[in-house]
Design a protein that fits this description.
single chain, mainly alpha, two-stranded parallel sheet, 15 helices, 3% strand
Length: 264
Amino acid sequence: MRILARIIQIDPSSELLGTITHHSNNQNGIKPRDFQSNSPMQLRLRNEFERDYAGTVFYRISRGEQSELPEIIDNELAARMLLAFDLEEPWTSHQTYKLFDELHSKIFARPEVDANRIVALFDIYRVVEDELNEVDNELLAKYTLTKFFLVYLIREALNGDPTGQSFVANPRSFVLPDRKREILRRAVAGVLRDLIVDLNGEVQEREDAGTPFDFKRDLKSESAVRGLARQILGPYTKAIKRDRAPSFTALYEQAGRQALEGSA
């Protein structure tokens, strides 16, 4: 048997090593995500999950990784959630080919990105999935970018609330200990239901005016997304100020009391 091989001798610390590896593997099925699976950022996050969520949450950083833990958070989903919530760019979250290439450092190389933040955003994302049936337009509800638009909309709603601002700054106390995660999910669900009511109203108004919401185009447009968010957040904010809708702070406090009563 004869095997064709190419041997390159190079200093392991040389920057040329990474360039050669990248260009060599670009000729096969290796994707940018595979290159980043052993990056310091991804390994740091994996270690944090193993430390803070041992036995409960597995952070998958490589394609094909399996785990028997109750929850698995894929780092591609983490990147899309961080892009929509933290960076407030849901219109980019469908461009998965960029997540571990040109956007990787922008998404993950921030000091506030840790296991707790990813778990918190995962809980928000699960609430979004659970509440999608409240979206009247079935095609809009099934469209993938709608999920990340709603994650972004929740972020915008939390920006105007003192407890929400604390969550955005550092979600650790909202997810640890683990029993607090259900309190967070209940509060976020209350906020999202009110936002979806206004989303349904805005979509219906556009339909009635003869200018239907072209979600497949508009949810990929920064200006369209920001414009739609303003139309939804305006009525939502007014409803809170007029005590017609509960704030995130009120919902979180209520969920906390219910949790205490349930454990008593």
